[in-house]
Structures are given as C-alpha cells and as structure tokens.
Amino acid sequence: MRDRFLGFAFAAAELLIEADGAGVVQFATGAFTRWFGVDAGDLAGRDLGSLLSHTDQATVALCLSLAGRKGRVAPVGVHLANEDRTPMALAGLCRPDNPNYIFFTLSRMPLAKETAEDVGSPEWLMDAVQNRITRGGNGTVGLIEVGGLPNQRQMSDQIAASLARAAGKNAQTRQLANGRYGVLANGPLNMDDVVGQLREFLRDLPDASYVNVRGSGIELDRNDGLTSHQVSSAMRYAFGRFADGGVEAVQKAGFAKGLTGFMTHANARARDARTSIKNGRFKLRFQPVVSLDREVVHHYEALLRPIPSEYNPGNDAQEFVSFIEAVGLAEELDLAVMTRALEAMRRAPAASVAMNISGVSAQSPGFRAVAVPLIRRAVEEFHLHPLIELTETVEITNVKEAAQTMEELRAAGALTCLDDFGAGAASYRYLRDFRVDFVKIDGGFVRSAATSARAHGMILSIAELANFVGAKVIAEMVETREQARMMRDAGIDFAQGWLFGKPGLLPGSDI
Asked: SS3 of 77, please?
C-alpha cells in the first residue's frame, strides 16, 4: 500500500487505478460510486477498458503500450462507460519499483472557457441508432433545434429531460451540439407534440418570446425495402447535416419525407454527382503546409471545390464529400481527385502534394488496384512526391483491407498521413493499425488550445503518441501567431492554416 500511496500522492484525480501490463485492475480508489454506482473495492480483476467508453478501447491499448515502453502516459481525453459518457483525462505512470504495474489517474480537466467541442457530439446517437438497426429494431429519431435562448448551455440538461418526457418511455435524449438535441424513441414520434411540449416548458423563461424551437423526425422502419447499410449511411449523413446546418439542412437533404424521401432525392443527386465526377466538373485548390521551425513550405494539400449544378447547388466541399460517401461514390471521386492532383504535380514537379482518400476507398480492393499503379507511375516515371491523407469521415470496419491499401501506397512511393486525428473515435486505433508518416491534428483542438485545457492536453498527448510511432505531426487551422507558438512549443512539426496561406492554385501549375 505504501507504493500506491506514493504513486497517488501528487495526483489531483477523482479516480485512481493500479493495473498490470495487460490492463487488469489490481487496486482502485476514488469516486467510483459517484460515476459508476459501484464500490471501488469491487473493481479488482476487471479490465481497465471496461471502465471507459467502447470508443476509447484503442486508446487504452495504446496507453498500456506507451506506459510499458516509456514508463508514463501523458494526459489523453477519454470518456467513462457511464450513461453520461463523462469526459475525463487519463494519465499513467509505471510503479518505480515494478514497471509491470501502472498507476492510472482519471480526472476532470478544467476548462478556462467552454467551447463547442465540449457540449456534445452526434456519435452517441449514431451508435444507438446503429445498435437498433443491427438488432432489426424500429423507432424514430427526432432532431430538435432550440434558438434564441440566452442561457442555452446552462439549460441543456433541463431541455434534454423535457424532450425525454415528451418522447415517451425509455427514449434516449441528449444534446448533440450547442442548441441541438437528438432523441431516439422506441416507436412513432409526433414531432409537433414534442416541439409543442418543449415550447410549453420554455415559455415562462425570461425573453421566451425570442426562443425558436424546430424539429424533424426520421422513422427507422425498414419496411420500405432499404438495407441496414443504406439506413446507416443515410442516418450518418443526416446527423452530419444537422450538426452543420440544423433542422433546415436536414429537411433540404430530403429527410422531410423520411428515409424514402431522402433516397429519392439522393438518387437524383447521385446521378448528377457521378456525371460531374466523370466529366471532371470540380476544381482543386492547394493550401501550403509549412515546417514550424523555419516556416517554409513542405508540401501542399489538394482541397476539393465542387462546381454547383442542378442537383448539387452548393459549393460546400465537406457536405459534398459526406454525400458522396453516403451514396457510395467515394472511390470514383477519390480516383478523379488523385488523377487531377497528379496532373497538377506533373506541371509543377518541384511541389509535393497531399491528396485525401476516404475510409470507404481505403477498404476497397478495386480502388487499390487502380490507385497504387497511378502512384507508382507518378513516382517512378515522373519523379513526383505524393502524399496520401486518410480521412476519418467514415469509420473503417475492414482494417485488414485498409492497412493493405495504405501499405501498398507507401511501397509505391507515397508518404501517408492520418487526417483529422482526434476528431473521431477510431483515431488511436488507426495509429495502432496503420504505419503512417504523418498525423494531422484536427483543427478543433488547435482552435480551442488557448482556452481549453482538455484540447491543449490532447494536442500534447497526440504529439507524444505520434512521436512514439515515428510519425511527424501537422496542426491544421493555424490562423494566429499565438496558435503557431503553442503548436511549436507542443512539439508539432508542421502547420497548415490561413496564417501561412489560403488555398489557391499550385505554384507552377495552372490547374
């Protein structure tokens, strides 16, 4: 016990755990009753990962590996496996007298200022919907938007509770983002009633006359002939649109008429998008990525800029890519972008260019069969220096295929990078499963680093983990000198953002 108390003496943590190298809990103390409703003494023999959300299992594995090799683990953000998925910082230190045992601390990280990343995420709702679909169950997803409420964040728990009452027995309800809420009900959901009850709840608040409540419901009933994969893809797209543009964006995407309405709308849009891809109706713009030590250009990232058309009227690149992934056109788009980017490089051979590929494409042997020869020819015949960035907009389920794609692209002469690292649940698993040359930190952490201790801690942890596996680190969305200084002090190698250049034509090329 003396060693344990010495190990925990300086830990300002709520949960204290000693585990062996395999992650089996040997000793625990702290506020486990508060967070889990169990006594700390009952945890001996359990797996450390069982205390954390399933989305953090790969993080636990990496932390155990890092502790075993380096003797410590810098704080990394995780979520408890409780109903609220409470965010915590996990840190670790090997016992001085026995490095096969590790002291872990779990603590709430103080925030100097609450930011959008701290108020919620659509991931929990997507997980719940996916579980419902997998079991063959039905239900209704309600998406509710509350605008004009001055104390939105302070009222979020009360709003979620009110929505749960309105949605009926056993409904799951939570805030997804500031002012936006999700509900998963077991049966049909009358959205007019749900919205009306929430308005009634809010009407006695100060300035209630300015509060605007909107809602949209999507039934998960698959009697319309849709496959589980189609439903999952459609719902993931719906959540993305809701997170970005609220109820209006969801309805414009076709969901106002349910899943079948979306599919009808999507089929017409998909035909138009396929024609656009085939005919090259898109532009590429190139943004510099600079080394932070000398602030000189290391390479450029090729960024897609869709050209508006009848069924694709907007020019929002992220929304366009999300739609392309949802309707199964990711491989076609990625190959078209790769071909265009390589042509730009041939016209400007001194420039190295990074191009994105979707997780959908990475898992496809068909995509690999075309992409690898393209890269090999660019390297061997034209002496170009391409980079491949694997995006995390779609979770990779076939890790074996994706790993083979990344490895063959590296063997062909491309450098590889994990894009938006930290934004999704699978980032740490990808770092374990794929051999990469670069890790690009999600811009949300960079924007929040100056005001959020959690975001700053995540950046430090990501930098350390990347360094451990031999990957260089890129910070995106660096827009101020303060952000650049913080990234440099954190050990980040490269930066991308408006501070160093906006997207434009590739120097030396007219593409």
From this structure: strand
Region at 160 (left for phi over 0; alpha for psi -120 to 50; beta for the rest): alpha
Return the bridge partners of 303, or none. 285
Query: How many CA within 13 A on the CB side of residue 86?
Result: 18
Q: Are 104 and 18 in contact (CB under 8 A)?
A: yes
User: Out of 142-146, 150-154, 370-374, 492-496, which region has the weakest mean confidence (pLDDT)?
Assistant: 150-154
Cα distance between residue 209 and residue 212, in whole Å: 8
Beta partners for residue 323, in sequence order: none
Q: How far is residue 243 from each of residues 117, 216, 239, 316, 465, measured CA to CA in Å? A: 12, 13, 6, 14, 29
Query: Looking up tokens 């096969």, which residue turns up?
Result: 100
Q: What is the DSSP letter of 418?
A: E
Answer for the pair 301, 353: CB distance below 8 angstroms, yes or no: yes
Tokens at 346, concatenated: 């041939």
Query: Which secondary-structure segment (H or E) carries 11?
Result: none
CA distance 145 to 13: 36
The residues facing 209 across adjacent strands are none
29, two tokens:
């103390």
Q: What's the rounded Cα separation, in Å, for the pair 378 and 252? A: 41
Residues 7-21 have pLDDT tens digits of: 444 455 678 899 998
pLDDT at 458 over 70: yes
The percent of residues in the chain predicted with pLDDT above 90, rounded, is 45
Say which residue the tokens 């910070």 belong to: 475
Taking 3-state DSSP, the helix, strand and coil percentages for the chain, each rounded to the nearest 5, stand at 45, 25, 30
